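Lecture notes, part 5. Sequence design as translation. It can be helpful to think of inverse folding as translation between two languages: the language of shapes and the language of residues. The source text, in structure tokens, appears below.
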């Protein structure tokens, strides 16, 4: 079922639905996040992530990208302030012995590629500087895997985050930015347009928008980084059924403004209808997409 949303009875434009954030975070971790695994793996292969890599994951969310890097032997640090619920799930994955609500480092077992590898993992609900220390500074790789450019104005927050993080990186360290590919190569674009169409004009800027060709390069330039190559990766979105697809897409947060402007039932209904062309005879949902990443260097 879709996470419950309760509308707050507050007058004015700030009236907004309140979601079951824990359920939504769990939907992200169990349904949606895995769709980006091909992106994570392509970046790690290209940059030869492994033992000796010190990785700082910005907006690390539920931590799947960090877990894959730890499985390759990397030392990983993740920071996130947007979703304490997702970060709690990251702790369950990377720091299973840490008491609930705890922070700091602990040995985390690696993933499928190195099942017996152990790497120091650190997760912080705060800024990159709050995660800094003698044992975590000197990063050779900084990642922002949360797609840039899918919301109007989201690049400003990424530039600010990078300004805080880059002093902790080594000279010449790689910085990876990610975003959606061209709309014509992303089947999910037609579904995500519902987020913009249903959102009222006052909140339209918070909804989804199609990616622009130079979104990632603009962020790199504003952050003072030097582009050093890019790539495109097929990241199809596949779901067991339409209900799973709706839950997964809602977990991205891209439909929050639409829910505020209308209601959860209306968004669910229109999402389900928009998914119909992508349903297979067996009831599964399949949407081919392309994501893009940019590798830049710290001067």
């Amino acid at each position: 079922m879709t996470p419950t949303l309760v509308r707050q009875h507050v007058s004015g434009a700030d009236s907004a639905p309140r979601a079951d954030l824990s359920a939504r975070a769990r939907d992200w971790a169990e349904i949606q996040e895995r769709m980006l695994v091909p992106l994570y793996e392509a970046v790690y292969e290209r940059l030869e992530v492994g033992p000796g890599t010190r990785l700082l994951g910005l907006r690390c969310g539920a931590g799947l990208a960090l877990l894959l890097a730890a499985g390759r032997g990397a030392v990983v640090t993740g920071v996130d302030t947007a979703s304490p619920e997702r970060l709690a799930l990251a702790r369950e994955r990377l720091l299973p012995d840490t008491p609930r609500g705890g922070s700091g480092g602990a040995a985390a077992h690696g993933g499928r590629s190195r099942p017996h590898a152990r790497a120091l993992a650190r997760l912080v609900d705060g800024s990159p500087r709050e995660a800094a220390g003698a044992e975590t500074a000197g990063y050779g790789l900084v990642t922002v895997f949360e797609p840039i450019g899918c919301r109007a104005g989201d690049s400003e927050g990424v530039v600010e985050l990078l300004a805080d993080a880059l002093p902790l990186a080594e000279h010449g360290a790689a910085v990876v930015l990610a975003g959606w590919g061209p709309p014509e190569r992303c089947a999910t674009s037609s579904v995500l347009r519902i987020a913009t169409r249903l959102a009222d004009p006052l909140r339209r800027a918070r909804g989804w928008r199609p990616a622009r060709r130079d979104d990632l390069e603009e962020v790199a330039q504003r952050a003072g980084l030097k582009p050093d190559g890019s790539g495109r990766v097929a990241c199809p979105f596949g779901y067991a059924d339409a209900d799973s697809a709706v839950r997964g897409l809602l977990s991205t947060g891209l439909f929050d403004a639409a829910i505020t402007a209308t209601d959860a039932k209306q968004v669910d209904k229109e999402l389900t209808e928009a998914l119909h062309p992508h349903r297979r005879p067996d009831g599964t949902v399949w949407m081919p997409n392309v994501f893009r990443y940019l590798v830049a260097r710290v001067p």
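The translated text above is only one of many valid answers, since several sequences can fold into similar shapes. The first strand starts at residue 5 and ends at 7.
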